[in-house]
């Protein structure tokens, strides 16, 4: 006669927990909506630099803004006499876009679309290429709608953690949970890049924007990692912790207080929108999404998917190309292009959104003509 083991209360608890877990996992598989958390490293190809020429992927699109931006970029690159060639990626070539950026390691994205499909593609590129940092620099230019002089804020934000994984599921009918996935390894990697970049840029104080009081585990882990990592930069950088609400209040009333901002992906995007709004508008500035091996450069209005502009700003395009040149190591060309942009501003050449009568094409042409005159003078 077979003897059955005695069923204890702890055994029943384990059985019920396992049954509950199986139900949850089954529900996740059944009601899983979208997204994927990155676990594997990016497949890195050798650098594509043929004959000393850098090849850059240029993503255009079908919109008027995209076509206009592509024309601006191509004209500036050809007139700057920089060894950079573009590989144009048309709309609908999604797989080619990914492989092109994977191969070239650098891209310029000028199309501006805010529909769900376009946002999904942008997030996929960030995750597939592990572009874990988002950077933008906003500053005041006299006469360009900035109410505060001497504003210069560098924002270095986390880019593909948390909500960027787009993980959501329905455990039971009528209930949806959205997961914000954060790992200590990703936090350390982001902060290591951010502190190094801030020190290299000559910044003196970094302010970590957080809500550690409300999100004690997720934001709290980022705060603790920042405190730990700051020990290596005590001689050149001051670390300040600030709650989101206080940061927003100070940004709109006293933006000159800030030097460099750190923020997780939960706050980085809308903080950049506030910083740009304080300094005259997102169409003045540029942004870059960057990882260990790849980088995608965009006008800030493209990064923020702002569709309230009829045209792509010439100022944002020039600023984007300046960032691209610096990334590729063409510092002298970047300085020359930036000086020409500043000259147009100082001479009162302004587009209509800033109270002028000039077009974006005129701004670009004026800069190109001056660059050609420089080349002839040499």
UniProtKB/TrEMBL annotation:
SUPFAM superfamilies named in the record: Isocitrate/Isopropylmalate dehydrogenase-like
Keywords assigned: Tricarboxylic acid cycle
Any GO CC annotation of this UniProt entry: mitochondrion
Pfam families registered for this protein in UniProt: Iso_dh (PF00180)
Domain Isopropylmalate dehydrogenase-like: from-to ranges: 55-367
GO biological process: isocitrate metabolic process; tricarboxylic acid cycle
Domain of life per record: Eukaryota
Record-stated family: Belongs to the isocitrate and isopropylmalate dehydrogenases family.
Record-given protein name: Isocitrate dehydrogenase [NAD] subunit gamma, mitochondrial
Gene label: LOC117138116
